[in-house]
Amino acid sequence: MNRLSIKIVWRTMCILLQFEAVFMFLSAIVSFVYNEPEFIHLIISTGVTFLFGIIGILFTRDVKNLQMGKREGYMVVSLIWIVFSFFGLLPFYLSGHIPDFTDAFFETMSGFTTTGATILTDIESMPHGLLFWRSLTQWLGGMGIIVLSMAILPIIGAGGMSMFTAEVPGPTKDKLHAKLDYTAKILWSIYAAITLIESVILWLCGMDYFDAICHSFTTMASGGFSTKAASIAYWHSPLIEYIIIVFMIMSGINFTLYYHMLRGRFKKLTHNEELKAYLIIILVMTTLVMGSLLIHHNNIMGTEKAFRYALFNVTALITTTGFANSDYTTWAPFVWTVLLMMMAFGACAGSTSGGIKTVRITLLLKNSYYEFKRLIHPNAVIPVRFNEKVVKPQLIDNVQAFVFLYLIVVIVSVLFFTACGLDFDNAVGTSISAVSNVGPAIDQYGPMANYAPMPPLCKWYMCLLMMAGRLELFTVFMIFTPSFWKK
Amino acid sequence: MKIVIAGAGDVGTHLAKMLSKDRHTIILLDEQAEKIKTLEANYDILSVVGSPTSLKDLVEAQVPSADLFVGVTPSESTNITACMLATKLGAIKTLARIDNQEYLMPKNKEFFKSMGIDDLIYPEMLAAKEIVNSLKKSWVRQYVELSDGALVVVATKMRSNSPLCNIPLSQAFATNGNIRIVAIKRGDTTIVPSGKNQVMEDDIVYFITTREGVEDVRIQSGKENYDISNIMFLGASRICIKTIQELPKSKDIKVIEQDLDKTYRIIENTDNVLVIQGDGRDISLLQQEDISSFDAFVALSGNAETNILSCLAAKGMGVNRTIAEVENMDYIDMAEKLDIGAIINKKLIAASYIYQMILGGDASVKFLTLADIDIVELTAENNSYVTKGPLSSLSFPKNTIIGGVVRNGVGEVAVGKTQIQAGDTVIVFCNRNSLVDIEKLFK
Hints:
- With 487 residues, chain A is an all-alpha fold.
- Chain A contains 22 helices and three strands.
- Chain B has four domains: 2-121, 3-Layer(aba) Sandwich (Rossmann fold); 128-220, Regulator of K+ conductance, C-terminal domain (Alpha-Beta Plaits, 2-Layer Sandwich), CATH 3.30.70; 230-348, Rossmann fold, CATH 3.40.50; 353-441, Regulator of K+ conductance, C-terminal domain (Alpha-Beta Plaits, 2-Layer Sandwich).
- Classes of the chains: A mainly alpha (487), B alpha/beta (443).
């Protein structure tokens, strides 16, 4: 393999910046429509992003084609989130709505990684243009910036697969079509179509169309940014909550399954073990939380309310969306534990959610169970079967390494946060929440609170965690391994 | 009938030998001259050296005027291509040997017909069915169902405790009209018995009976029945996968296979199978896997020697039922003498299956692996010789037995006073050479 070519990385990122400029311009239009003074800041940000990109492209004209190797691919996929966040923060920073640079970067990174952790204390006072941009960052980050660029412009040639692999979550990837850019197109079309459907339904059910669109963006991306400080609880509407629940569950399903469904291949759906496990986990955990609510808070909860609260919070956290319809930090500690577990689990591979992913959990559970059988029959070959297929031990090794890495990251993060002065509950909650891209944590950083009081150093550390979590750890950490830089 | 056989492997050669005795015109086509030249010297066939997918060679092999083209080279795609070419060149019917169950599915039949392939044969599938059949009854050497199960032929090895031993056959079944012995294999010779013959110890005896009569056969031959509920397989070959798929799900199955990829393949394609990675010739491994607790041992590795030896080892360790796949034709006789429960040879099975298809229509032939005898199902036509009177008053060629009659789906074992009617399906046991003469009696 060749040494990393900085020029190719540079050029690719400058081209990708043009995409960001286009979407920023969209937000500027929204701002213009609402006749807000922040319009000018959005236009300036668009201009800066655009110019920076153009200059970068002009300087690297001698790179004829973007033949990316694995290294360049991983480098681009990792750096792009930092670069996008850096330019993406400009509207917040320039307009003065988030005057602190650390906060602005945190907010944007939280957006692109679909975490949904916010430092804003008064969301309602934000102008529409900025709120729209804030939701849009999540929508872009949800399906992935690289996948989007592949869908729109065939700029990435060979090496695209490694970038696709790095950006789409899950241990294995299905290509839906022989051409990668066509696969990306299918995924983004489905993503956009469901988002559109959701916004129409939300609008019909009583949200105004601006809120409907913004919430659809952040639901499908499993992001969790809301245009209201009270999140979904603002509407006091069970109907809206149920609709959001349905679409949150949908955002947690592997998007390739929708494609198979549209093609009439329902067998792929009914025979998908991960989907089955995902729905069962939601069902079981909802029952547990509902039981706890009925026992511990029976004075304020009816059965319907308990069911709705339980289902909403379980789905919001397992899909790592992080919307809120209530403040679960006031509930029994048992519920916190269940919800923390949900945050770590995450939904299906190939969805927009974060976390460990149901497929990995299922594989490891099966593998551990078979280990008993292996002890009894030492000569037997007892591989894990998933979706009727034999899973090769190499993949199990990979999954085990991932889960172990995830645990290490959480432990190191807890150490770091407690060293910075956070207490234990908060340290554990924020670590898991950030690395799984959830948003709300427990205790002080619950769904009705925000991250503004966090020390700046912790905020920067959170940014790193969110990025590493979004790219499923390996991609980001690989850059720090010596073998990545060796020939 | 002019029959062109492409591929002089075991299936092709065996088929050519069988067919050449029936006065068909046989042309054998193969790329390797040494494979077919010796055959041409000993049998009445024409051999052509050439590729089954070359147009020039196909014409050379007289495919344009052939009634039947049989593609039985080891390669599936060669067979399919050759059959398609043969149809376009003018062969009336084609048959290809395949390696893929997907092609056999009923919905694909028309598809292959439109491509010019009339029949498909999948030897592994046939072998698997044979194994499943012989696992059903633990004491049976061979179990053949005739006319959709109206009658069955059962072969078993005689022990001295059998009440049938050493008494003339005319007395043996005096009280039971439901069983009849149709062939006795003693050493290397096959006897077509008459009333005077006797059954002796160590004979392999072929009975014809109805399904209900099978239990009587067991009692008469002094055998004990035991259910086979757990089976050990050696070698995760394709036959093994097919066999396990065909077996009832309740069976406890262990498979020993050395190759890791093959173990994955079998796990993917079957349920509830414990797969052990290891060498099946390793006796200590077999003991470790508790071989003596198994009811049956089926050796299906690619190596005939391994299969035979491991079956003997299994027998020695107390396994009641052993089945060995022996692809090497020279070993079959020897293996049979070695007290192995049943011998499977997929080429022989395939060849007899094709043979049966070729005769097609009014006659169907089953070929017994062990004895040198054919079972033919013939339909009696109006005013044919066989309908002229009870069997005892008719005369048949030497070494021929009318085994049974199937009328309206109900089978009956033939005895002296049985009267055949037009439209009956008659089960005839005969020597292959006299088949043509017998067919005349039914017309």
